[in-house]
Amino acid sequence: MAAAASFDITSTVDLQEVDNAVNQAQKEIGQRFDFKGAHIEIDFDKAKSTITLLADDDYKLSAVWEVLQGKMFKRGVPIKNMKLGDKEMAAGSAVRRVVSLQQGIPTEAAKAIVKFLKDEGLKKVQATIQAEQVRVTSNSKDELQEAMKRLRGHDFGIELMFGNYRS
């Protein structure tokens, strides 16, 4: 009988790349004509994994968000793992928005992944939740590859990363 092969499903954000993207966004915003004279802030808190956006009005806030998303995409940061919070009023007429960065797979998404694999009818594939990741095991490497293919084709609301493949 063949030994069990496995891989882990994770979802992480490289905080150094986020920091680089925030710095690039700040530099671009400082140079753009449409932001001249505007009070714009982008604060990245590594400890809390949050980015706070502050702008004079809704239009500028959405423009800052678009610039930041573009820089994140160019640096390979998964946009799906960025959860945009609600707009809130700040001092004066300024608007603030907090973006939280999803590190690891949330419990509800992990349960959805396990349920999805069971519902797909892959008989030899077993999935288990391990803290903030999901381990998928099978005796058949072909079944594992099929599971990866099907998982890539389904949207769980976060960016899935496959690694730690063992055979």
Automatic annotation (TrEMBL):
Cellular component aspect of the GO annotation: cytosol
Keywords, alphabetical: Nucleotide-binding
Any one GO MF annotation of this record: nucleotide binding
One Pfam family, short name: YajQ
InterPro entries linked to this entry: UPF0234-like_C (IPR035571), UPF0234_N (IPR035570), YajQ-like_sf (IPR036183), YajQ/Smlt4090-like (IPR007551)
Similarity section: Belongs to the YajQ family.
Biological role stated in the UniProt entry: Nucleotide-binding protein.
Protein name: Nucleotide-binding protein LuPra_03133
